[in-house]
Structure formats: structure tokens, C-alpha cells
Amino acid sequence: MTIFRNFDAQDGPLTARRIETFLRGQIEAGVLSSGAKLPPIRETAWQIGCAPGTVARAYRALVVAGLAHGEVGRGTFIGSGGQADPFPMRAPPPEAVADFSVNSFQMEDASGLLAEALHRSAARVASGALSLTYQGLEGGRENREAVVPLISRWRSGVTAEDIVVASGAQSLLSAAFLALRDPGAGVACDALTYPGVIAAAVATGTKLHPVRMDAQGMCPEALDALCRKVPVSQVFLMPAVQNPTGGAMPDARRSALAESAARHRLTVLEDQVYGFLEEPGRTGFSDLIPERTLLMFSLSKCVAPALRVGYAAGPAAMIRRLASAQNALQMMVSPVLTDAANWILGLPAFEERLARLREGSARRADYVAERLPGLVPDRLSRGVAWLSLPEGWTEDGFCAEAEALGVRVSPGRLFAADARTAPGAVRLCLASVPDETRFRAAIDRIAGLCQRPGTRSEFAP
Hints:
This protein has 3 domains: 63 residues, Orthogonal Bundle (Arc Repressor Mutant, subunit A), CATH 1.10.10.10; 105 residues, Aspartate Aminotransferase, domain 1 (Alpha-Beta Complex); 234 residues, Type I PLP-dependent aspartate aminotransferase-like (Major domain) (Aspartate Aminotransferase, domain 2).
């Protein structure tokens, strides 16, 4: 092996970031060209004298950056390999392809609502009624007040002073990793998690610790064991809808995880971006342990991804630190977008929209359960289907065959917090195809594909 012949293992700590930087340099220098295979993780770890997990994180960082791609059973290769970048998403597919790969709730059209909101905001700009200068550190009081009724679903007694406004929940996640994590400590997350968590961890130099899951979500005893073993200061949880599996966390599991977080003095990063899919009244971590929880929400799912406005709510000290990090990362959110968001949030029709999204998700779940009977109907009602592949299929092989049939889905490896694992599943986003007839036809194709035997074109003589 020659790739690491110029790597000086004695020239500093053997961190994933250092290995990643070395490999980036090799790519830029032309030493590693597109299609070159990186050495196996354990072989590299043995040669340079570090843990296999350190090498795995370095390889994953290259994949997230679009500089490499993994092929299940074959290894990691330089270049995209024609595959999807893990985050944020691939380019939109051709018109003929039904895109189940991106979780956008397009079954309830938002174009008219957003157009009217932006038209009203533009009129306020023209009249001078809307300030176009820099906003306050937390995002302007009127913008924070506008979202208080909605955030109150998950955090009792919340006020405008408890809220920060941002350009979506993704930027809040990166800011939370930077501002609220103890030095040297990592972040616990589900073994299968939202790819944005993985990308934010790579970008901020945060160590992710995958935690074992079951049908109810993260296992409290596994979180306890992790915290006794390594330094952890945050835990990322999705109680309403676990992405990618679609599970909703039962109340007893929420309470058990809250007790574990309090026991180990963890900050809970509570993702409620999909909270609108739950009927109001469920108790989340922001009510169970409000003093240790940062709640994150955005309008990307319940309205549209184009409305880049997100919100975080938490204790005063936590919010001050988060606001400072947000200010450093993005300065402010566009006042035109926040003004449009304020108007939408204040509409009586907004609650009606949320109800229609819940009803539409349940309706589509019924059809998917009928055509793919191995799936749990209750999980399907939250907009995603986590489909374990029939014997003989690889994730990439299934995705390629599905796209050839006009349906795009996401391989399960994109959601694995441990880059060395492949769950043998794909994710389908059930709300992303606007037309009902087209949606059903696409599900029928997936059902047909599941009946076909999997194929493997590569073999070793």
C-alpha cells in the first residue's frame, strides 16, 4: 500500500480530521484520482497506528464532502461514483422520476400560500413598513413572538425571550454543536439518524456516538452505558418522528431517556421539525427536563423548504450561547423571510394545513401498508417508510433498479451514524410526490421490485 507512505504518524495526534486533511491533500495533488480505492479501514488503522473508528470517520468525512463514495461490500472510492452525496441531497430528478428520496411534504401544495406571504412582505418593503437593516442577536422580537403559540405545543410557558430565530433547523444544529458541547465531549445519537446530524458533526469536528435502538427509539440502558464509557455532553433525539425509521417515541421511553439525560447531565437536542405530525398534547423533552433541553423546529416540512426559517427554544443561558454562535455563522435571517413566516404562522388556515398534512400522511400510509404488507402501518403515517430489503438485494443495487423504474429512493447507509455499517434498507419519503395517482403508481413499482430476486454483478475470482 502506497497511499499513506508520506503520512507521518508521529507528527501530531492521530485524529480523523488529520487523516481527512492528508487524504484531501492527496486528492488535490492528483495522487488519488477519481476511481482510486482507499485501503480497507482496518488495514489503514494498523499501518498508521490508530483505532479503526478514527479511519472510518475520516473516510466518512470525504464521502460527506462529495470527494469519495462507498460501495457496500467493495470499499470506499475517490469521486462521487455517480452516487448521491449523503447530504444535503442530489439534484432534482427528471420529470419522469417520482422522487421519494427527499422528505418534502409536497402532497399539500404551498406555492399559493408562500406566494401570497412574499407578496405581502414585498408590499411592506415598498411602503417602508418592513425594516431591512440588521436584526437583533436572537432574531427580532416580533419574529420570536409569532412562533410562541406553535412552540408552546412542546415547551410549556415559553416566551419570546426563550427563542432564537435562524435560517432553518440545520444551522441551529451546527450552532448547538459549536456552542453547547463541552470541550472534548461527544454527542450521542440514534444508530440510524438524520444525515444532517452526520454532516453537522463532520463540519464542526464533533464526535458522534451511535446508540443502540429498538422499535421505541433510542435504548436508555445503551445511553447509560455509553455515558459511563466515554465523555458525552449532548444527546440528539427525535421524539415525534424518528428519521429514517418513522417511529414515534412512546411516553414511557421519553421519560426513561429524560431520566438518563438528567443522570449524566446531558443537554438534550430535541428535534421537533416533524412535531406537527403528532396530535397536540404529547409531552416532549422540553417539558420533561426543560432546564436541559434545546428544542429545534423549522417551517421546511410543514410549509416548504424554500422558507428557510427555523426556531430554537430553551433556557436563557443556553439561548444566549446559541444566539452568539448563530450570529457568527449567519449574522441574521432575511427579514423578508421572517415577515412572510410571521404572516403564515398567524393564519387560522395554518392549523388547518397541519391537520390536512396529518390526514394526507395517514391516507398514504394505508395504501403503502396494503402494497407493502411487511411494513408497520403506524410508522407509515408519519411520512416515511423504512423498507428492509428482501434477501439478495444490496442497497445500491435496489436504488439503481428503482430509479430505472422511475422511482428514486435513499439507501439506508446514508443514515448510519457508524460509517462501517449498512442497515440493508432504503427510505421512502411518502409525502414528496404531489400527485396521488403518480404516488400510487410509484409505490406499485416498488412493490413489484420487492418481488424480484436481487442481483450482484461483481464477483471475486
